[in-house]
């Protein structure tokens, strides 16, 4: 399924429900908003890795990931005249430890933007089969914005935490991997649809049309733990704790109870929130955003018109070295919240029924935000990204596509470090919740 499918989720449901509205003219909630998920069955710590040696034009490297996703799964990448796309790493990456076969892999990238799990990116720490290993006789190939991998697809055990071992997990063993220096591989927590086309079976039934069960699919199938992943990241400067993944629910101790939060319908290949818009202070910027939440992306990418509006209102200047916007300290003291409004339910109101008076959709929006401090790049890292240590860089960048595109926005770590996120594969919902770091001054 593509992002177009996510967008049509709203309109298809609208058509079905509009029939019901005829009989019942009161506002109708289309999407049932589930309550917060239950407490997780178990949690694992994750590590934050900051690589500032990527250097030139770090905003561009996130767009590279993006264009590449579109190339593989959707449509040709947006034209970005005058820019070349470098396969550079992300600045901030979160990793977890995974036991695969008889090997241990400390530096597995935690990625909600992809769904295959594979090891062997570090040739000195290749896949080590256990006694339960078997071959699928399949070849796996996955392309990412920041690199690619090619290898054999095998079946083996995967250990997530003491006492939590998955049996018969399909795993990639890299023969060749590019763009993952310093890492062992990827733990893919995206929806299973995203694995379609990645594994080519050499034995009948041959071809690559089958999906490959993800870690989350198998945890659920083998233990009954709900297919919910809770993700907690800590922003730069708070070194006491790096982050945590929660399996089967969320870690209630990591969120502000009674705080701001919401659960949204998602669908298809990515963890997407199809109907989102941005406001700077109280001023709306840009049109509709179709966003994905991606733990493998550092920055916040918005449509080009929203970005232009943001630049205008903040008075920021585009820095040609880093590709990021920067502001003066006066502009920083005047910075307003950047609001991210996500459609939570869709209501239909019919005042007077006639063909000319079609039902009207009103989206009830839930408002999240980045505080002024959350909108700036951690100043301690300026020098490492090739920036000026005295400049104040902003974390919002342009995706290079306009409003109304099927995919024009990536909600990356700069947001996910401020809001707890949870991903429910069974009910196809994604949620965000306030944490004690939402309003923290750390940058
Ligand atoms: C950091 O990123 C650069 C550029 O992408 C890469 O060459 C380098 O190996 C990375 N270093 C580490 C320690 O990950
Ligand atoms: C891409 O990399 C080349 C060489 O590594 C560099 O000269 C160029 O500026 C980079 N382009 C961007 C957009 O980062
Ligand atoms: C690769 O793996 C070896 C063996 O585990 C380890 O010593 C080395 O530090 C790893 N390299 C990187 C760049 O992580
Ligand atoms: C999915 O939604 C149903 C109905 O609201 C609920 O009973 C069930 O517990 C949910 N499952 C998960 C894993 O959230
Ligand atoms: C923005 O809107 C809020 C609520 O709608 C209001 O309380 C606040 O005064 C407004 N701020 C400005 C600067 O207009
Ligand atoms: C930004 O400012 C420029 C120059 O003043 C103006 O032409 C443009 O319409 C503005 N764009 C937005 C989206 O506000």
TrEMBL record:
One Pfam family this sequence matches: Asp
Signal peptide per UniProt: 1-23
Keyword Nucleotide-binding: no
Keyword hit for Cytoplasm: no
Domain of life, per lineage: Eukaryota
CDD domains in UniProt: pepsin_like
GO process terms (BP): proteolysis
Peptidase A1 domain residues: 94-433
Annotated InterPro entries: Aspartic_peptidase_A1, Aspartic_peptidase_AS, Pepsin-like_dom, PEPTIDASE_A1, Peptidase_aspartic_dom_sf
Keywords, alphabetical: Aspartyl protease, Hydrolase, Protease, Signal
GO molecular function, one term: aspartic-type endopeptidase activity
Protein family (similarity comment): Belongs to the peptidase A1 family.
Name the record gives this protein: Peptidase A1 domain-containing protein
């Amino acid at each position: 399924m593509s992002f177009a499918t996510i967008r049509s989720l709203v309109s298809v449901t609208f058509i079905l429900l509009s029939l019901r509205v005829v009989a019942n003219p009161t506002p109708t909630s289309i999407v049932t908003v589930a309550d917060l998920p239950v407490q997780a069955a178990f949690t694992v710590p994750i590590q934050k890795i900051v690589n500032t040696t990527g250097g030139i034009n770090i905003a561009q490297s996130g767009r590279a990931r993006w264009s590449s996703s579109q190339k593989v799964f959707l449509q040709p990448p947006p034209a970005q005249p005058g820019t070349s796309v470098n396969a550079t790493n992300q600045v901030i990456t979160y990793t977890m430890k995974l036991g695969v076969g008889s090997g241990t892999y400390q530096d597995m990238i935690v990625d909600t933007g992809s769904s295959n799990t594979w090891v062997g990116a570090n040739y000195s720490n290749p896949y080590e089969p256990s006694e339960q290993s078997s071959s699928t006789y399949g070849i796996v190939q996955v392309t990412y914005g920041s690199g690619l991998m090619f290898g054999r697809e095998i079946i083996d055990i995967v250990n997530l935490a003491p006492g939590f071992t998955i049996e018969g997990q399909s795993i990639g063993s890299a023969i060749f991997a590019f763009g993952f220096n310093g890492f062992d591989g990827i733990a893919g927590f995206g929806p299973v649809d995203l694995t379609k086309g990645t594994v080519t079976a050499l034995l009948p039934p041959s071809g690559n049309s089958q999906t490959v069960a993800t870690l989350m699919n198998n945890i659920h199938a083998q233990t009954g733990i709900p297919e919910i992943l809770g993700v907690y990241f800590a922003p730069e400067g708070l070194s006491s704790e790096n982050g945590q993944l929660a399996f089967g629910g969320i870690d209630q101790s990591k969120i502000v109870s009674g705080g701001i939060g919401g659960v949204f319908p998602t669908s298809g290949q990515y963890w997407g929130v199809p109907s989102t818009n941005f406001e700077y202070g109280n001023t709306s910027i840009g049109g509709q955003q179709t966003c994905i939440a991606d733990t493998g992306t550092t920055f916040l990418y918005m449509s080009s018109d929203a970005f232009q509006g943001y630049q205008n209102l903040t008075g920021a200047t585009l820095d040609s070295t880093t590709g990021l916007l920067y502001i003066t300290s006066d502009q920083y003291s005047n910075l307003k919240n950047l609001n991210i409004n996500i459609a939570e339910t869709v209501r239909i109101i019919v005042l007077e029924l006639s063909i000319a008076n079609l039902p009207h959709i009103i989206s009830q929006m839930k408002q999240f935000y980045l505080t002024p401090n959350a909108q700036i790049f951690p100043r301690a890292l300026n020098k490492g990204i090739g920036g000026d240590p005295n400049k104040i860089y902003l974390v919002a960048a342009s995706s290079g596509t306009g409003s109304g595109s099927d995919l024009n926005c990536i909600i990356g770590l700069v947001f996910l470090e401020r809001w707890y996120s949870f991903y429910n594969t069974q009910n196809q919902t994604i949620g965000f919740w306030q944490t004690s770091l939402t309003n923290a001054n750390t940058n």
